[in-house]
Amino acid sequence: MTALFALTTSLMWGLADFGGGLLTRRTPALTVVVVSQTIAVVVLGAIVVATGGFSEAGPRLWYAVAAGLIGPVAMLAFYKALALGPMGVVSPLGALGVAVPVGVGLVLGERPGLLQFAGILVAVVGVVLAGGPQFKGAPVQRQAVLLTLLAAFGFGAVMALIAEASTTLTGLFLALFVQRVTNVVAGGAALYASAKRGGRVLPEEGGWRVVRASLPALAFVGLADVAANGTYALAAREGPVTVAAVLASLYPIVTALAARGVLSERLRGVQAAGAGLALVGTLLLATG
């Protein structure tokens, strides 16, 4: 079940990243984050009320609050790094966030078997290569590298925190709700501050009309991200965190394949090789 939940996580995160990437081509990234997460808050709130999740409130929810504060910072740092580029360097570095939950698992005493350890190494190398790293070409700004490493650490920290935020299914719904509420509050404050400084909040062409037309896509992005956090928490609970984290980190491959299928973007040779290595690593982890 660990492998199934973790692979579902990578699928949901990959599709959410692809959808979010498309939306930010017309709408400011911070607006995409706030609107998509607000939709997720409404849906999660209804689920929490229906399942009686508020009865699960306890100290563990502070992990969800921390995840909710770190998540938007990591996402915005990643978007900024992508803007500074080159993307072929930024994308693979962003996948290094898997080191955080893997490290937590090792500190807690998890010791993968030989096949699983080999699978972790192969899968991580595959994920990095699947991002299409540039080994030569345009120079990389130091700021881009620092922002990417900040984002990677943030993404990894969110994975580790959300896995600790609950012990039951209803508690998980509540933890995800608290995380998203925190996301919206933090992101909304940043959006307001940006607007006060004269930053762009709405698309340059179409304004609110474009945002309203994008609501179904924004809802998908927000809910897919929530689902990914939920299935990751279940994966980490069912089996070793070291295995769950690596399998969940395969989402860049899903994003690349979605871009190939929808936008007809061609995979570079290094990306195809990375996808193959990630698949081999997945099989080793699943069978180990």
Give the SSE order as H and E letters.
Answer: HHHHHHHHHHHHH
Global outline: globular
Radius of gyration, in Å, reads 18 Å
Report the average pLDDT across residues: 79
Overall number of strands: 0
Biggest β-sheet: count, sense, barrel? none
Uncertain segments of ≥5 residues (pLDDT<50)?
none
Q: Which secondary-structure class do the elements indicate?
A: mainly alpha
- End-to-end distance, in Å? 13 Å
Beta-strand share of residues: under 5%
* Helical proportion, percent range: over 70%
**Total helical segments:** 13
Could you characterize the architecture of this molecule?
The chain is 78% helix and 0% strand. The protein is mainly alpha-helical. The mean pLDDT is 79.
